[in-house]
Amino acid sequence: MWSQLPENKHNDAPKNPRVYDSDMPTFTTDVRMQKVGELFASSAGHAAKDEQVQGSGGGGPCEAVFWVKEKGTQWRIKGTAFVVAPDIEGGEDEKESSGVRTVKSEIGGRMRVVEGAQDKEGEWSWGRELTGHFGNCSPGMRGSWKNPPPGTPVKGEPDNEHQLGQKVENLEDPIARSNFRVVVIRPDDVEQTDISDPATARRWKYTLVTDAQDGRGEWTKEELWP
Fold first, then answer.
1. Partners of residue 80 on adjacent β-strands
2. At 186, phi and psi to the nearest 5?
């Protein structure tokens, strides 16, 4: 979940203090992948040009399915997805882009301060969280962000900087980090289907209901036939 990176003894990236909780799952991707452009193009901003999808932003519709084999349970999550890029936290003199402002507003609005951590909010960093996700990946996975551009035709040998099978130890590798993105799913609708025993299969639907006065949301739960 965003703002809740699990403990990983192999992750040497600096960690944010435990300040926020959230109900927003994440996944990592490459900015050169088609899905990034789709999340921007299908958002309210309808960004379509390549230069418009290089930074943070997005907000297009998203649906993700997770199958937990050990529990015989499927989770289907529907919502909107936002892209966190290296520009999420620039220098003091840098002006935030509209995409950065959108991400911080839409994602930040669903981040809940942990009880007793109110005085530590200023210590939490968007950039540090992004680096933490990069460090949470294996060196081989980090190296995949230095692959030749995915989905492009194979024409001769790639250049020396873009080779398959690289392993990246440096958390600030300029090429890998320039292509690395974290996608945060902001769910509005979640379905849980338990088919561990077909004779007693059950299904539940969770819907986020937002209060018009304060903008806070509460999850409602309804049981459905599977």
1. 61, 186
2. -100, 100
Q: How confident is the model at residue 214 (pLDDT cuts 50, 70, 90)?
A: low
Could you tell me which residues are beta bridge partners of residue 60?
81
Spatial neighbors of 195 by CB under 8 A, at least 6 apart, are: 72, 73, 74, 201, 226
Interior angle at CA 195, CA 67 and CA 184, nearest 5? 30
**C-alpha to C-alpha distance for 219 and 112, rounded to whole angstroms:** 14
Q: Does 30 have pLDDT greater than 70?
A: yes
Beta-strand relationship, 180-194 and 73-84: antiparallel
Average pLDDT for the chain? 93
Yes or no: say if 220 and 209 are a contact pair by the CB < 8 Å rule.
yes
pLDDT, tens only, 49-81: 888 899 999 999 999 999 999 999 999 999 999
pLDDT tens for 106-163 read 999 999 999 988 888 899 999 999 999 999 999 999 999 999 999 999 988 888 899 9
Written as one string, the DSSP assignment of 33-90 is SHHHHHHHHTSTT---SGGGGSSSEEEEEEEEEEEEGGGTEEEEEEEEEEEE-GGGS-
- 8 A C-beta contact, residue 196 and residue 71: yes
**Token pair of 175 as six digits:** 């090429």
Distance between CA atoms of residues 61 and 56, nearest Å: 16
* Amino acid identity, position 11: N
Hey, is 21 helix, strand or coil?
strand
